[in-house]
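WARN retry 2 of 3 for item q-0093 after timeout on previous attempt; input resubmitted unchanged.
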Amino acid sequence: MKNSLVFLLLVFAQLSMGQVANEYLTLDKKMNKIPDSLTTTTSGIAGFIGSNFKTETEKIRAVFYWTAANISYDVPNRNEPNYLDAPEVKIANALKSRKGVCIHYAEIFNDIANKAGIKTYIIPGYTKQAGKVDAISHAWCASRVDGKWFLFDPTWGSGYVNGKTFTKKLNNAYFKVEPKKLITSHMPFDYLWQFLNSPWTNQEFYDGKEDVKKAKVNFDYQTEIEAYEKLSEGDKAFQAAARIQKNGLKNNLISEEYDSLKKQFTALNQNKNVEKLNVTIANYNEAISFLNDFVMYRFKKFKPTVADDELKNMLQNIKDRFTKCKNDIYEVGSVGEENKGLLFNLKSNINLNMIEVEKQETFLKEYLSKGLIGRKIMLASQR
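OK item q-0093 returned
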């Protein structure tokens, strides 16, 4: 009886997949008509899709089908995905060779989909097949189709690897998948991209099921994603790292992603701080120029003559400029070892010049307190 039940379930699964294939057969045939001249760039492919498909479902199907059907898995380079290459480099290389690993599939899918007007993200993570967690990381995609998030794995959807051989075979099981279904085989490093109101922990992924005893949560991923999209790149990396750490550094892949994000937001923050430093340097140089002009004007015995209030305002403007530089420089933060000395020297120079401004201020206050003869004596005796 049990054997019969299993047999019926398997037949049902095969029929279901066949129905999915038939459902999109017309769309796939239309996508096959894309001119070769348009397939050298993602812009060309996206343009064809935009002109020939109407609904978001039709468009995302065209994106998935073209990517899965035209890129072959590069088995020899499966452990050398060149993650450090810029996205446009990965895309160009894969479109030219028609080969790639998961990140190339994901980059192409992501770029075409976004250019076709469908919001899409690349999701880094790790996977599990036949109950065993893979030793290499993986990348797939999420797209918002008709207001709802679905998951797509064009790599697994393009075929399968047996030993050192890749066999091309379209697998619709990885097209437009509900997040709650794909979580059993695909685990994002950052639980934000699970698109679940009750995200799985890494331990639950290893166990293959949710822990029914864990504390109930209601994670509003829609709101969280909207907030994420408004963040700077550095803040995105910082918050992602925090979520990854919170979910448990279960294996080396997760730890490597966590360390990478920490380095990323540290570098981005340092770059932002260097920009602040450069602005402060420019403001400091301008303040120095104004101070030098005032000192030269003083040694020219304040000629041509201006009103006393104008003299006060002139020096007050200089003081305000140095005060701003002092306030700004202490808010710069870390700028890296290569700029550490520059930051220290600028702080010192600002403080020294503020002392000089105070000296000028003391002189001017005394000068303005005197009559005409007293002023002439002060200007004649200055050095």
